[in-house]
Amino acid sequence: MSDGTIDVHALAKLLNLDIRRIQQLAAEGHVFKAERGRYHLARSINGYCKFMQKANDGEKATLRLEVEKLRRGEHEWLNVIVFMLDHIFALNRAAERSGQENLIKQLGHFQNTCRDAARRVGLAPVLAAAGEAFDPQKHQLPEGEVPAGGVIGEIVASGYSYQGKLIRSVIVTLQETPAPAEQGKVATGSGLSQLPLGATESPAV
Q: CB 108: neighbour CB atoms within 10 A?
């Protein structure tokens, strides 16, 4: 090996390959053959390392593509599930407004069952209640605006978290706040609780 060459058996053992694979790599130009069945050691090792690096980069690119496909698929089915849960939530709210106890109970049970099924894949509802303080970290308005503060008046749609990460805030509306003059009328007049703007009452005569 003083001339910088090595026979095919030694090269195969060095690279942990069989002889046929060495010959194939030589035909592809990745290892370099010398005279009488010997191979240039340094050039062959360098060529084989470049070949493996290229193959490794190709595998990484393929894996990245597959991961991107999986993420797109995950995003699509999450949107489908959230779309269905939003419609179930809307049906449940409509039942509550109807005042029909049997309908409220049935749709409430149906909504809870669907939410339990979604939890099995890591999708969980994020809930809020009327009267809570608006929190921009958990709540959002339908128009997407961020108010300076306020109190939640109505829940428009549930929020959702996926595998512990918030993916959509709870969509809410805010309670209307009476103007200062109207607040004074309520406080000094009949002693009634604070009313929404435009919904004042007149004291009995």
A: 13
Low-confidence ranges of the chain (pLDDT < 70): 1-2, 178-205
23 burial class (0-12, 13-18, 19+ CB within 10 angstroms)?
A: middle
CA distance 39 to 150: 79
* Residue of 126, 136, 131 whose CA lies nearest to 175: 131
Closest by CA to 111, choosing from 98, 97, 95, is 95
Q: How many residues does the chain have?
A: 205
Amino acid present at 39 = Y
How big is the chain by its Cα radius of gyration, in Å?
Answer: 35
Structure tokens of 133? 């303080």
Residue type, position 157, single letter: A
Predicted TM-score of the model (pTM): 0.58
pLDDT digit string (tens) for 74-91?
A: 999 999 999 999 999 999
